[in-house]
Amino acid sequence: MSLLKKLSLYNIRFALLVFVLLPFLSIIVASGWYSLYRLEADAKANMEQEIELIARTIRLPLSHALQHGHTATLERMVSSIYDIDKVFAVYVYDKEGKRISTTGSAKARVRDDEAVDLAVRGDEQGEFGEATGGEEVFSYFVPLSDSGERSIGLLQVARRGSDFSRQIDQFRKRAVGMLALSTLLVVGLVWVGYQRTVGRHIHRMREDMETIATGQLSHRVAVDGPAEIRFLAQGFNSMLDSIVASEQELRARREQEDALKVRLQQTEKLAAIGRFAAGVAHELGTPLSVADGKAQRE
Predict the structure, then answer these.
(1) What are phi and psi of 171, to 5 degrees?
(2) b/e string for 196-229 if b means 16 or more Cβ within 10 A?
(3) Is the alpha carbon torsion for 175, 179, 180, 184 positive or negative?
(4) Which of residues 188 and 283 earns the better pLDDT score?
(5) Predicted confidence (pLDDT) at residue 64 exceeds the cutoff of 60
(6) At residue 1, does pLDDT exceed 50?
(7) Nearest alpha carbon to residue 86 among 47, 55, 127
């Protein structure tokens, strides 16, 4: 702190920036980053739920078509799912794990043994995986069952992983842009607020002090602005009043001392004259007394 005080940059604006604005912005950035993380997670979950809802919606009619061997109906339903923009591929497997219907890319399909295992377990699940060619996909698996709730196949609805990353990247860019804009807005508001409430008053006070420093002790600092600035200005003015009063008192005392010196000098002159007259009288008095005595005897 002592080093900062020695630097010319250390002023109220610098202190306000370091000790108020930066901590405030740090809190905003930290909270904004955490909120962004949570929103990205929610957005990802929502995109996963979209695929989940599509798979669940088609599950019953697809199970019915598979149970009764309505291949044409099954193909039409699979094609209708693929027509949705969010869907990358749709696969239908029988209970042996063999693929009996495919629409879209064939890169995301699972192995036959995995399909059998998923169909036998009868659990719905979603997972990210790497498709053929290295592309990441999100797949949601829904078991297909007959009227007796026995497993007869498996439905896989896949979505590109790039859809997730692209949408999240767009969301992140917008959020970061809004955060940066908010930060600039806060900085601007603090700067303008400082200039309006403190900066201009301190600048004018400095000009007043420079005027007073030239010897114009009758000049006074303007008392306006926030309470702290007014209190400081009143303190300066009171100090100037005290200085002027002290100078007037010193001037009056000097004048009194000068008058006393003049009177003292006059008194000393009169005393010298009196002493001189007494000496002359003494010197003249003796011969006159002798002459007077002689005159009386004769």
Answers:
(1) -65, -40
(2) eebbebbebbeebeeebeeeeeeebbeeebeeeb
(3) positive
(4) 188
(5) yes
(6) no
(7) 47
Q: Letter for the amino acid at 2? A: S
Render pLDDT for 65-108 as a digit per residue (tens, 0 to 9). 888 888 888 888 888 887 777 788 888 888 887 888 888 776 66
Which token pair is 89? Answer: 């591929």
Q: Three-class SS of residue 146?
A: coil
In Å, the largest CA–CA distance within the chain is 191
Whole-number Å distance between alpha carbons of 229 and 132: 72
Task: Provide the token pair at 223.
Answer: 């008392």
- The residue extents of the domains of the chain are 12-172
User: In this structure, which topology does domain 12-172 adopt according to CATH?
Assistant: Beta-Lactamase (3.30.450)
Say if residue 7's pLDDT is above 60: no
